[in-house]
Amino acid sequence: MADTHSFSNMAASGVHTKALGLARSYLGENSKILIAGSGEGGFEYQLLKNGTNAGAISALDIDPSQYKIPEINCQYCDLNGRIPFDDASFDICFSIEVIEHLNNPQNIINEVHRILKPSGMLILSTPNVHSIAQKLRFLFSDEFQWFRDKDHERIGHIHPIFDWLLKRMIQDKFELLEFDAPTFQLRLLTKAPGIPMPRRST
């Protein structure tokens, strides 16, 4: 297995840990897992380290050449388009700090909804533009951190994902269960209504 120190484009500090903790109650022994937007495979590394079978994980990325987990095959996929799997193929999908990079963020919501089973779960994260720090920054500069011109050029961020926007995007597709942290937003979305809401982080 690749060493964790070899990953150069890891998500914001704490995102992987929070995502794994949030998913633990919903991951079963036979769960089929999709990683939509794998990067170098840092999140898959964490899954494997926590005992997930590599055969249960499918990985997608627009640049599979950067992928560093030899136990898992990472397929090419532009997440602005069709995800190359059949309907109702997966129990859970993780998309960690990906949606803000897409020209068509609605598409990933639609496609993940299609490939998840009826009781499936989507866990996604995106930079938090609702924090006090972000609001103050916007008030004085008309810019959100991580969405400035230099951020777009350096890391490819396109769309800040506001709460109201996400709620519109998932309408009639997912129930939103929320889990927030100071610098990023972690979202648990379920196709099955009535699942208890996890506690917010403190």
3D structure, described in words:
- By secondary structure, the protein is α/β, with parallel strands linked by helices.
- It has one domain (4-128, 159-190): Vaccinia Virus protein VP39 (Rossmann fold, 3-Layer(aba) Sandwich).
- The protein is 26% helix and 22% strand.
- It contains 6 helices and 7 strands.
- The protein has a 7-stranded mixed β-sheet.
- Strand 1, helix 2 and strand 2 form a beta-alpha-beta unit.
- The longest helix is centred in the middle third of the chain and has 11 residues, at 105-115.
- The chain starts with 14 loop residues before the first helix and ends in a 12-residue tail after the last strand.
- The model is unreliable at 194-202 (pLDDT under 50).
Give the SSE layout.
Blueprint: H1 15-23, E1 33-36, H2 42-49, E2 57-61, E3 74-76, E4 90-96, H3 105-115, E5 116-127, H4 132-141, H5 149-155, H6 163-169, E6 175-180, E7 184-190
Parallel strand pairs: 1-2, 1-4, 2-3, 4-5
Antiparallel strand pairs: 5-7, 6-7
Total helical segments: 6
CATH architecture group name: 3-Layer(aba) Sandwich
Class from helix and strand fractions: alpha/beta
Quick one: CATH class?
Alpha Beta
Question: Looking at this structure, what is the CATH superfamily?
Answer: Vaccinia Virus protein VP39
The count of strands amounts to 7
Number of domains: 1
